Amino acid sequence: MTERTGGCLCGQVRFRLTAEPIASRVCWCKDCQRIASNGTVNLIVPTAAMEISGNLGEYTRTADSGNQVIRRFCPQCGTQLFADSTGRVGATVVRVGTLDDPSSVRPSANIWSSSAPAWACLDSALERVERQPGPPPAKAG
Question: Which residues are in the CENP-V/GFA domain (predicted)?
Fold first, then answer.
């Protein structure tokens, strides 16, 4: 297991991940494009394996999938850090760009690729999912 750490732009929020990711994907949904002006690269991790210090703001919205998504961010600098969904209870999305070492993970798929702009650079080596994928396979353990 590789421990990963990260935080926001101003340093007010820091976090530590103590479990391997369940999945890592590039998301091209319209909400992620609004957040990043591009696709977002995300880890899905067990919520119980996260330690967070600092105050977070949050915003809840119904996603195109129909799930309620709570996005959490630094209220000081605005960095988007985490998202929780009613469709993934017990798992949290972590924005890979907030990791101290974002190269420590590699996405396995482009999701919501049907929403990607015509100029998007979709890595052909990654699985391509047109909309919301099913849940990641359970890991043996």
Answer: 4-120
